[in-house]
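Hey all, quick one. A colleague (J.T.) asked me to put the NDP job into the tracker so the inputs and the structure tokens live in one place instead of scattered across chat threads. No bug as far as I know, just bookkeeping. Sequence used:
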Amino acid sequence: MSATFKALQVTQTPEQQFTQEVVNIGLDKLPPGDVLIRVHYSSLNYKDALSATGNRGVTRQFPHIPGIDAAGIVVNSNVPQFKPNDLVMVTGYDLGMNTWGGFAEYIRVPAEWVVPLPSDLTLQESMILGTAGLTAALSVNGLIQQEITPSLGEVLVTGSTGGVGSLAVSILAKLGYSVVAVTGKSKSHDFLKKLGAKLIINRSEIDEQTGKPLLKERWAGVIDTVGGNLLATAIKSTQYGGCVTACGLVAGANLTTTVYPFILRGVRLIGIDSVQCSMDKRLLIWSKLAAAWKPTYLDELVTTISLEQLPEKISEILQGNIQGRILVDLR
Ligand code: NDP
């Protein structure tokens, strides 16, 4: 084992700019923790781009190594539940936020954050899914728990070509739902059809500006990954007794709505969090993702890059221009 490791480091300049550079760092600089992991794969999520560009809501201390996802092999551990050579993954908690994260050949983390790799997933597959997959699956699980079955009608997915969105489309289609995918990308219709979307609509079609409190009932369920006015419009168009999940904010953190969809149509709005989600629930959802919920077309979803290519992709994800998932190969 070398005494240094390669990582994408974000540094704050005296002019309050944030620079991203691949550097070699001493292993002794890793934070304290129970389990040292040789990272084989990480992935790029929207939150990583916020961290890498100095968003204080995500990361307060620099120099920093982003990366909220990591999968790899245990090198050493001071807890009995993990042993050298175990295949493991870590998503969420404080990884990549204020704890150095997965855009590095090594991470050291508390044992409570570590998930044993399910036997039916490879390390590579676990990171094609990553936080985005966990979040998409938690959203689907939220609809199922609210008894939204495929026979009730169409399910809308917003931000559908993004990480969470494309995986939500894939899982819903695999489970037999009729998926309507909303996208801002006119060139991605074939991609969404391949993942299983029955219908693809442009963002402008569900970006209602009239301020009406209710719209024609359409969706049995909604998986929203963008927030803002698209979420507000989706709530107004949800059928009697339908359910909407909310996990993201790329279109805005504000939600302007009335109580009418909730009190006249019994619509339910459910928040989704993958970061602090309990370990029991995580293990349950990952076991589904490794089996019946595993997306059929994982290969179609992924673009594999190196650490050196991350800065370019970070800039693309901030502009909403990523299709599917970005896998970072650190082997
Ligand atoms: P991506 O960038 O991969 O996907 C976001 C997609 O949203 C884009 O690809 C685009 O898809 C669409 N989009 C982008 N900008 C806008 C806009 N201004 N208006 C409407 N749609 C837009 O991000 P992720 O999938 O990684 O994350 C999506 C969101 O979910 C983020 O806000 C992220 O922070 C959040 N998140 C939350 C988690 C949680 O635990 N609550 C966990 C993971 C993510 P298209 O062009 O197809 O419309």
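Adding what we noticed when we looked at it: The longest strand covers residues 35-44. The mean pLDDT is 97.
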